[in-house]
């Protein structure tokens, strides 16, 4: 792999894109900076005998911003797990498990997990690609992404590989942007999205085949990508999540970004065998 001339240009304005309410990206402050912040109140509903709902409030201890909002692990007793379909990319499993006083049966996609890369150049342009996706009958707008199907590969290494294979690019600066469950009601797929900056061309020996042979790359302003997402012109959930998160991170002076080597707890805790 070689890293040569950085991809450069003038820095673009960080003004809000047309159609993007500022409050969506930058919520109003809860108090005076540097002073103790008021406790947050979480809404709860009590169901009365007549079926009416009365809203009450519960005080939530104030910690770091929104720290009390967190997905939590849930342990259930899995009685059996049956492999229904063994696919090229993922499997379909049927689990029978206890839930409270009942037994439930659920089918789900057993997925390897995946990574994606929001590549941002110094003109605040995002690399997107039009790729044919058969189930939705569209060439949707995506960012470089791929499966975690190399044994022992870390999320960061997978992202670096995908950026090289799909975009012929390397990056000298990597940050963790988002962790997602893409469809937790029916799939164990986890997605880790990285922000790649300080970009430069690179070489690789990967041969693009199938749909990837016809990738159509394009550099677009981040603000335009955000506006397109909010207008409903982009339907890919990873692309939409990534551009909105990058916009919010930029507005916060990149303070929300995380270490790219942060343990991938979401992926480590899912059901199935493909992500092991």
TrEMBL record:
Give the enzyme class: hydrolase
Q: What is its EC number?
A: 3.6.1.13
Q: Which Pfam families match?
A: NUDIX
Nudix hydrolase domain location is 110-242
Molecular function GO labels? ADP-ribose diphosphatase activity
- GO BP term, example: ribose phosphate metabolic process
Q: Which CDD domains does the entry mention?
A: NUDIX_ADPRase_Rv1700 (cd24158)
GO cellular component terms given for this protein: cytosol
Q: Is Cell inner membrane one of the keywords? A: no
Q: Which UniProt keywords apply?
A: Hydrolase
- Name recorded for this polypeptide: ADP-ribose pyrophosphatase
């Amino acid at each position: 792999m070689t890293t040569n001339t950085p991809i450069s240009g003038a820095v673009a304005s960080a003004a809000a894109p047309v159609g993007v309410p500022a409050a969506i990206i930058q919520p109003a402050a809860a108090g005076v900076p540097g002073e103790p912040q008021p406790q947050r109140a979480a809404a709860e509903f009590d169901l009365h005998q007549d079926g009416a709902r009365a809203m009450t409030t519960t005080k939530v201890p104030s910690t770091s911003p929104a720290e009390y909002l967190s997905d939590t692990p849930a342990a259930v007793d899995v009685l059996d797990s049956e492999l229904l379909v063994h696919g090229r990319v993922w499997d379909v499993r049927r689990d029978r498990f206890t839930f409270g006083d009942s037994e439930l049966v659920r089918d789900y996609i057993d997925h390897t997990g995946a990574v994606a890369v929001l590549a941002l150049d110094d003109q605040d342009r995002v690399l997107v690609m039009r790729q044919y996706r058969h189930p939705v009958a569209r060439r949707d707008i995506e960012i470089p992404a791929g499966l975690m199907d190399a044994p022992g590969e870390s999320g960061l290494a997978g992202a670096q590989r995908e950026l090289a294979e799909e975009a012929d690019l390397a990056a000298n600066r990597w940050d963790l942007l988002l962790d997602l469950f893409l469809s937790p009601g029916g799939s164990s797929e986890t997605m880790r999205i990285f922000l790649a900056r300080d970009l430069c061309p690179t070489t690789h020996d990967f041969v693009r085949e199938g749909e990837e042979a016809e990738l159509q790359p394009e550099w677009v302003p981040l603000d335009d990508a955000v506006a397109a997402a909010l207008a409903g012109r982009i339907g890919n959930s990873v692309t939409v999540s990534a551009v909105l998160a990058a916009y919010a991170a930029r507005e916060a002076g990149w303070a929300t970004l995380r270490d790219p080597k942060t343990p991938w707890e979401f992926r480590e805790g899912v059901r199935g065998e493909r992500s092991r």
